[in-house]
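Tokens as discussed.
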């Protein structure tokens, strides 16, 4: 495939798919034309994969997720197809550049954070290892809101990725299912007949997911909601225009927008409708496909492994039992057995407020038959486990974590520490009853997007040093280790980092009008805003550092740039306050002539996948400072380490395993462990004791409290100071001094650039294990009994 071939096929699409003459084409037209030309090269491996799966009667994996945080797909497809060089020169002779065209693609922001991005990395790895699989989710019309700052406050605006043409999907009008809600359940003898009173159509949209080297492509099938009734012409003719459009508008509501919460379940009826809508459509599609090849549904577990990405699709348990028992007349207990043998569940959080519980009232109103089946599943589990001290239904609510556990043959956590804590806390009783079910599958990230594509300068250095087989076999990064002792290699490594930092400094100057010193340490914390992730610990340390520099400006400080990015759930007031505080602190510190050469603070708006791809390669220091026991895994931590950033972090989530891999000398560890956190929380006035013991902390809190960063509104942050002093549930104060002191150590080490680069290069060389290819191979072996088709 030469660049001439690619150019020809692109011009064909510009002409015949967009009806545009090159002379009148806009960036958007070129982007769509190139995307369609690239997509043409995905269809053949896609068809081949589907045919091979049918021919070989292979088992399929079905990944059910409310979120797929995909980002952009054009560059990803070009890289996976090995067309980058061709694509780079495809615009020669036209007054448009490849980078401009890439910039024109909107992010598919169909997710909130870690859980959604993990699902997207998994799709890339499932195709790369040629494991037959389908991703199933919702085709939200509006993804995660766009974040803008007004006077430093977060303002949310609707996201509009579908305004232009969505070039990667194929509509599948022939694949549509009617999904019901509400209505009565008629009992007739042993049979139950559910007669939903509300119905919507689930319509399929397929996006092919090409793997590395373009050998295999799986399908991401996203459902959109459509009305069973078309437009009401009579009403329209009577001039009742809104009423005429109402049925259609109401139906579309189900797939209209992604819920922007990533830790607190809202218990909203529409959220449960969304969960049931896509889960039911997916299960129907799975059974349709199975019955198109086989006729004995008892064989279903041999041909279908269904993964529940957290509890959001947990209704799959009772729904599959309903389909097998009510519609296919299989005995109830057998139906439960068959369903359990198909289903497995991943838990992504131990935060109590994130564990979904639906009131019996709401469940009974929306899904009356399912509530009946959940009661029978609960009774059956009680009968089969007489000693049990846990139930699925409790105090009028259905606990979706317990339901998922009872209906799954495997449950996994997402890091070693998290899986252990799951066994000791939320699922202790169920683990006692079913000790064989819980396994660990530590998260991973795809090296295609998160190293090869986002960091070409480092990738070409790695290619030059050890060849490029690492992209599909990331563990081979370890072959870099012997080269770390070579100054030439370290200099080249430092050069790659410097180039990325210079690139980021340009971006920040162009977008924020702020000049960053590329020689300074780029210290980055990017993730959703949440108290357990402790962005407020980071800004307190920043204030303390600022104060220390002001007290002693001539001391030998090493310049540092603090970069923040991240969205807060719209209803999460405290998190939004933290964003406001960081922006206020940035305004004051960046304007301070005494410190401006030594310390800058930046909060970049609208954090998303594309911004992460721009920031991570330019990082020197990765902030992974959550309260131990709270971050299930983290995946940003892995991306930073792979891109040669050093981590300052607690022994939480996958930080533990990253530190084990890179070595304690190449990781800046601080803070309490998970057991110490539990102990410290029991100490009365633990926060005030910590404040009294740390002048740096006391000074920083005092500044916040007396309005140093909000001169016109001195009381603006009284509540943050109040919270820190009197509750501080996430132990910001108790971990502060250890964090502050560790940051001073980081300053020291950063001074010795060669030592720093050695540590950074060892991070890259020793984190190959954190590839999502390795993670997926773990799921295939331990949970799905699925195999690659070679
Ligand atoms: C019901 C609202 C809601 C929505 C999303 C509650 C909880 C979630 C997700 C489980 C939150 C999430 O994204 N968890 C993150 O999952 C990542 C992938 O496993 C982990 O790396 C992160 O540690 C975890 O916070």
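Sequence:
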């Amino acid at each position: 495939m030469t660049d001439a071939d690619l150019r020809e096929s692109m011009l064909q699409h510009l002409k015949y798919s967009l009806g545009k003459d090159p002379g009148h084409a806009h960036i958007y037209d070129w982007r769509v034309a190139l995307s369609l030309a690239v997509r043409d090269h995905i269809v053949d491996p896609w068809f081949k994969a589907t045919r091979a799966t049918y021919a070989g009667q292979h088992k399929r994996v079905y990944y059910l997720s409310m979120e797929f945080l995909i980002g952009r797909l054009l560059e990803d497809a070009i890289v996976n197809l090995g067309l980058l060089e061709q694509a780079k020169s495809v615009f020669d002779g036209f007054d448009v550049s490849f980078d401009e065209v890439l910039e024109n693609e909107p992010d598919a922001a169909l997710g909130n954070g870690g859980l959604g991005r993990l699902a997207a990395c998994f799709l890339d790895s499932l195709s790369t290892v040629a494991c037959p699989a389908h991703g199933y989710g919702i085709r939200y019309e509006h993804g995660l809101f766009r974040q803008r700052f007004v006077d430093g406050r977060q303002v949310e605006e609707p996201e509009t990725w579908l305004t232009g043409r969505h070039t990667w999907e194929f509509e599948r009008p022939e694949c549509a299912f009617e999904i019901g809600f509400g209505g009565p359940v008629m009992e007739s003898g042993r049979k139950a007949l559910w007669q939903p009173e509300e119905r919507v159509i689930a319509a399929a949209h397929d996006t092919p997911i090409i793997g590395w080297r373009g050998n295999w492509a799986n399908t991401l099938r996203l459902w959109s909601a459509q009305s069973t009734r078309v437009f009401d012409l009579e009403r329209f003719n009577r001039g009742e225009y809104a009423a005429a459009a109402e049925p259609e508008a109401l139906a579309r509501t189900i797939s209209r927008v992604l819920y922007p919460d990533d830790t607190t379940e809202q218990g909203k009826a529409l959220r449960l409708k969304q969960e049931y809508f896509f889960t039911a459509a997916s299960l129907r599609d799975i059974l349709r496909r199975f019955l198109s090849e086989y006729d004995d549904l008892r064989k279903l577990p041999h041909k279908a492994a269904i993964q529940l990405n957290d509890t959001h699709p947990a209704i799959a348990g009772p729904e599959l039992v309903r389909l097998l028992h009510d519609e296919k007349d299989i005995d109830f207990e057998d139906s439960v057995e068959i369903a359990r043998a198909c289903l497995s569940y991943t838990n992504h959080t131990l935060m109590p407020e994130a564990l979904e519980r639906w009131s019996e009232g709401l469940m009974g109103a929306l899904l009356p038959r399912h509530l009946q089946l959940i009661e029978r599943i609960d009774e059956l589990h009680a009968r089969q486990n007489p000693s049990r001290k846990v139930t699925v239904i409790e105090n009028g609510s259905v606990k979706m974590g317990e339901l998922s556990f009872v209906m799954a043959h495997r449950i996994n956590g997402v890091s070693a520490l998290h899986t252990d804590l799951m066994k000791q806390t939320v699922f202790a009783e169920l683990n006692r009853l079913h000790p064989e079910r819980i396994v660990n599958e530590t998260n991973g990230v795809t090296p295609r997007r998160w190293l090869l594509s986002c960091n070409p300068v480092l990738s070409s250095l790695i290619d030059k040093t050890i060849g490029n087989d690492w992209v599909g076999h990331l563990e081979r990064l370890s072959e870099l280790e012997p080269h770390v002792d070579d100054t030439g290699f370290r200099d080249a490594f430092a050069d790659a980092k410097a180039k990325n930092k210079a690139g980021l400094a340009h971006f920040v100057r162009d977008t924020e009008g702020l000049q960053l010193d590329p020689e300074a340490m780029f210290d980055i914390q990017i993730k959703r805003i949440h108290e357990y992730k402790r962005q407020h610990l980071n800004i307190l340390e920043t204030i303390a550092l600022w104060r220390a520099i002001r007290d002693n400006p001539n001391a030998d400080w090493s310049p540092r740039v603090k970069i923040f990015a991240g969205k807060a759930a719209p209803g999460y007031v405290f998190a939004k306050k933290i964003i406001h505080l960081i922006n206020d602190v940035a305004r004051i510190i960046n304007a301070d002539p005494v410190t401006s050469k030594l310390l800058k603070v930046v909060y970049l708006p609208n954090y998303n996948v594309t911004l992460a791809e721009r920031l991570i390669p330019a990082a020197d220091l990765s902030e992974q400072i959550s309260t131990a026991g709270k971050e299930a895994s983290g995946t940003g931590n892995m991306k930073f380490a792979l891109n040669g950033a050093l981590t300052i972090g607690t022994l939480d989530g996958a930080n533990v395993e990253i530190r084990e891999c890179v070595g304690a000398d190449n990781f800046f560890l601080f803070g309490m462990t998970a057991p110490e956190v539990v102990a410290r929380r029991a100490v009365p006035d633990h926060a005030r004791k910590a404040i009294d013991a740390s002048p740096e902390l006391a000074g920083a809190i005092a500044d916040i409290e007396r309005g140093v960063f909000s001169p016109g509104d001195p009381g603006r942050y009284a509540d943050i100071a109040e919270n820190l002093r009197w509750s501080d549930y996430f132990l910001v104060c108790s971990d502060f001094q250890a964090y502050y002191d560790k940051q001073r150590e980081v300053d020291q080490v950063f001074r010795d650039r060669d030592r720093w680069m050695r540590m950074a290069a060892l991070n890259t060389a020793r984190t190959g294990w954190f590839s999502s290819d390795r993670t997926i191979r773990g799921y295939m072996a331990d949970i799905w009994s699925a195999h690659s088709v070679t």
